[in-house]
Amino acid sequence: DTLNILAVSGSLREKSSNTALMHAIIGLAPEEMRFEVYRGLGDLPHFNPDLDTEAGPAAVTELRSRLAAADAVLICTPEYGNGVPGSLKNALDWIVSSGEFVNKPTAVITASPTPMGGDKAHASLLLTLGMINAVVDDGATLMIPHISLKLDREGRIKDDALVRDIEAMLAALLSACRAQPSK
Ligand code: FNR
Questions:
Q1: Residues 3-41 pLDDT 10s
Q2: pLDDT above 90 for 54
Q3: Does 100 sit in the ligand 1 pocket, CB within 6 Å?
Q4: How far is the CA of 79 from the centre of ligand 1 (A)?
Q5: I need a surface site. Which of 66, 97, 104, 124 has the fewest CB within 10 A?
Q6: Distance from the CA of 162 to the center of ligand 1, in angstroms?
Q7: pLDDT value at residue 140
Q8: In what helix (H) or strand (E) does residue 169 lie, and over which residues does it extend?
Q9: Pairing relation of β-strands 141-144 and 106-111?
Q10: Which residue's alpha carbon is at the smallest distance from atom 11 of ligand 1?
């Protein structure tokens, strides 16, 4: 069966390297992996348990139903201030109580122009995803340093080693999906 994967970039920036990378990854994926891009991070209200009611904010309901309908999630994110960008963390905070990440195979990619590859955001994101019981296979993670040197002006990947790493990451995500009951 075809797998439906929700792709999320943790950067709201128009010329984001992470968003470009996310699209390049989608372009490298095998046909059985079908991607939908979630662009709503910037429209979510700040997480407030008082708003987390039956008829909660529409943007939150939309995020939850799109996650529920997805077989897997792909996250590409920068690191800001040694952590996960607030807008991405905010989205995940909305999911703690509703549980759409439980048993959801999730690929975690951080990319940074620095030599560190966003390692602090990466570690922090793994902690949060672990808390909400996402399935993060070791192979389905990438920390990409020097991202600005690895994309061309059109946002295409110009680094062969990165292409190979992405293909291996996608294969790991695919097997994590197939390992789920009914997939
Ligand atoms: C950054 N950047 C950054 N990079 C990093 O590796 N660790 C960090 O803690 C931070 N902190 C940070 C704070 C602020 C305010 C800005 C503007 C930038 C650099 C960041 O990785 C770089 O701008 C990326 O290009 C952002 O990702 P996108 O938008 O290109 O996907």
A1: 999 999 999 999 999 999 999 999 999 999 999 999 999
A2: no
A3: no
A4: 5
A5: 97
A6: 20
A7: 98
A8: helix 160-178
A9: parallel
A10: 80
Count of other CB atoms within 10 angstroms of residue 89: 18
- 47 DSSP 8-state letter: P
78 lines ligand 1 (CB under 6 A): yes
pLDDT of residue 173: 98
Percentage of residues in the chain having pLDDT higher than 90: 96
- In short, whether 11's Cβ falls inside 6 Å of ligand 1 is yes
Q: Which residue lies with its CA nearest to atom 10 of ligand 1? A: 80
The domains of the chain, with CATH numbers, are 3-178 (3.40.50.360)
Cβ(72)–Cβ(177) below 8 Å: yes
Atom of ligand 1 nearest to the CA of 12: 29
Determine the Cα–Cα distance for residues 144 and 90; give it in Å rounded to an integer. 23
Nearest 5°: phi and psi at 180?
-75, 145
Q: How many residues does the chain have?
A: 183
Q: Cα separation of 110 and 180, whole Å?
A: 25
95: nearest Cα among 122, 75, 68: 68
Question: Is the predicted pLDDT of residue 122 greater than 90, yes or no?
Answer: yes
Planar angle of CA 54, 56, 60, nearest 5 degrees = 120
Q: Decide if pLDDT at 53 tops 80.
A: yes
